[in-house]
Amino acid sequence: MYQALYRKWRPRTFDDVVGQSHITDTLKRQVETGRLSHAYLFTGTRGTGKTTCAKILSRAVNCEHPVNGNPCNQCPSCLGIENGSILDVLELDAASNNGVDQVRALRDEAVYTPAAVRKRVYIVDEVHMLSTAAFNALLKILEEPPAHLMFILATTELHKVPATIKSRCQQFSFKRILPGDIAARLAYVARQEGLELRGEGAELLARLADGGLRDALSLLDQCATSNGPIDEKQVLDALGLAGNLETARLLEQIGSGETGSALETLARLYGAGKEVGSLLNELSALVRDLLVRKTAPKGGAALLTGGYDETTMRKLSNLFQIPRLAQMLGVIQTTIADLSRSGNRRTDAELCLIRLCEPVLDESMAGINARLSRVEELLAGGIPTACAVPPAVQNKPRQKQTSSSDRHDDRPPWEEERPPLPEEPGEPVINEMMSTPVQAEGGEPAPTPDGGASGDLWPGLVAGLRGKFPAVYPFLSNPSAVQGLLEDSVLTLWVDTDFTKNMVGTASVLETLEKLASEQTGRSIRCVVKVGTPPRTAPAVQQPAEHDNLDDLLALGQQFDNIIIEE
After folding, report:
1. What is the distance between the alpha carbons of residues 141 and 147, in angstroms, rounded to a whole number?
2. Cβ proximity of 113 and 150 under 8 Å
3. Is pTM, for the whole model, over 0.90?
4. Residue 270 CB neighbours (<10 A)
């Protein structure tokens, strides 16, 4: 009868256990010196060696001829424990024996001395499944056990074990096994089994195992059905995965907003037998790596899965911002969680890709934050005409407006000339980027209230803040929201609302403005923020306004209101 690889190649000594030397070395020294505890608690994720070490320890403490703390696996005690003929060593599953009656029966039986070995050992797997009453029944014997008794408890969910149980045990935490150690063990098992396992195939299996050697051996067993070599392609085909290149290409299509191409890629992979859940998991892992790379560019290299080369990661990283990656990861993870209750998994995956390609469809706070971050980036760096409109919008046909006689038909609507601002008689004309009059009659700079010529002060200050405060710069560069007026060495920022005051009135913004103003005027300047309208100064003539990228964005939004998309 065929035996699964993870059972056939289960370690029989502490030296065979992979990746847990911090635990096995300690247990070997305790066996050698005889300083054994009456209760052990093994914790960690699945497939890391908890039950294996428990079985090895049960043989080691009863072995007649231990070798450096390891069981000899040849004496009658070791052989009897291994084949289950010695009933003094018992392995229990707490998931099916979690009642208080079963624990009471175990407690009553444990007081009897062993018949065939030195110590009676109880291995309780998944101990967190015990009920509260069962844990209470176990407390007394754990606190005052007989000299011949040993408990070895194992669990994957330590937080469910009561503190009173943990305090009575020696606790050992099993860590996830490194991919390199798993790949080396897989190569050894493959050689012993006569399988041709390639290096890239072993590395892929090690990454998919997620730190569990048992999972890696099970995957190897699944991929060993063919007669050819087990390489990366064979692993992907056997497990129904898309592969790194396909996943990277799909994410690139998402970043470019190519919804149709992304859906075609999904349809092609689905037709080739790829499971949509596995595809979304691979996409989630890639987005997670990009997010870690951008948030921790220096120390995050050790946190990456390592499944993608540096060129691919750099290329994909340039397509997304941190808020966008966080939003995408949330959408993917939510879809994966809902797949188990889905009536049509393919449709849910398609809807997920559509939401990823079209961020405007995500009305959550994360989606809105991602879009606002993109707008702030454009405002801070200047809005290029080609980048102001997404490619999907640029390529859609537009119906020409009936009032297009004043401009050329081929001219983009957001480049249409804006009409000049109306000029009220007797009122000073204010520059778009400043609140002080630009030029008084006679060609001389208009006098400011402190007697100096500061017509060019405010636009220079605003220009100096470009790129330093992306969230505040749109307010400072908007004359209808903020106007700066210099008076008696005091630069007053007149704002329209209390909300604007809270945005621009932070200490860092005011300190930067004071420093820039002091450098330009040659004297110490203090900044204050007030809500209201600045006082009028002497009449001034209009000066041509500087080009503002924010006006381009506002004009673009107005043009979109009049565009009719042809079906």
Report:
1. 11
2. no
3. no
4. 17
Question: Considering Cα of 239, then 242, then 247, then 250, what sign does the dihedral take?
Answer: negative
Which 3 state secondary structure label does DSSP give 240?
coil
Integer angstrom CA distances of residue 368 from 230, 331, 362, 419? 46, 13, 7, 32
**Domains in the chain, ordered, with CATH?**
5-174 (3.40.50.300), 179-239 (1.10.8.60), 244-377 (1.20.272.10), 447-536 (3.30.300.180)
Rounded CA-CA distance 226/200 in Å is 17
Ramachandran angles phi, psi of 78, nearest 5°:
-65, -45
Are 262 and 248 contacting, i.e. CB atoms less than 8 angstroms apart? no
Classify 61 as helix, strand or coil.
coil
Whose tokens are 């844990």? That residue is: 135
CA distance 22 to 20: 5
| DSSP secondary structure letters along 383-449 | --HHHHS-HHHHTS-BPPPTTGGGS-TTS-GGGSPPPPPP--TTSPPBPTT-SSBSEETTSSPPPPT
Strand ranges of the sheet holding 526-531, from the earlier edge strand across to the other edge: 482-487, 490-495, 526-531
Q: Read off the DSSP letter of residue 183.
A: H
Of 346, 300, 354, the closest CA to residue 322 belongs to: 300
Do residues 50 and 43 touch, judged by C-beta distance below 8 A?
yes
Give the C-alpha separation, 432 to 483, whole Å. Answer: 9
Helix count and strand count (H, E) for the chain: 25, 10
Give dist(CA 173, CA 42) in Å, integer.
Answer: 6
- Radius of gyration, CA atoms only, the chain: 36
Tokens of 345: 């998994």
Q: What is the CB neighbour count within 10 angstroms for residue 68?
A: 11
Name the DSSP letter for residue 113. P
Q: Tell me the pLDDT tens digit for each residue of 454-494.
A: 446 788 888 888 777 777 788 888 888 888 888 878 888 88
User: What type of residue sits at position 55?
Assistant: K
d(CA 283, CA 251): 7
Tokens 């007394």, residue? 140
Token readout for 189 is 């098992």
Reported as a single tens digit per residue, the pLDDT across 13-66 is: 999 999 899 999 999 999 999 899 999 999 998 888 899 999 999 999 999 888
